[in-house]
Amino acid sequence: MSTLTSREFNQDTGRAKKEALTGPVYITDRGKPSHVLLSYEEYKAMTEKKATIGELLSMDGVEDIEFTPGQVTDKAAAAEF
What we know:
By secondary structure, the protein is α+β, with helices and mostly antiparallel strands. The protein has a single domain, classed as YefM-like domain (YefM-like fold). It has helices at residues 6-11, 13-20, 40-47, 53-57, 75-80; strands at 2-5, 25-29, 32-37. The chain starts with a strand and ends with a helix. It has 5 helices and 3 strands. Strands 1-2-3 form a 3-stranded mixed beta sheet. Helices cover 41% and strands 19% of the residues. The longest helix has 8 residues, at 13-20.
């Protein structure tokens, strides 16, 4: 993760693009974050539609899958249930 001012971004977009390959680049205006630059791969991963549990359970053939739920062993986590 890195942060660039708007001026730095405008003067060196190549640097911003290079840094975006390793993580988001925050661009600020007057000291406040205003934009985020991401690699295309990271953007795609964030915006891909994920299947819901309902969609996964309604798929053909799932009735043949064996599933045994585990037990919660952490007392703090068990208190949430």
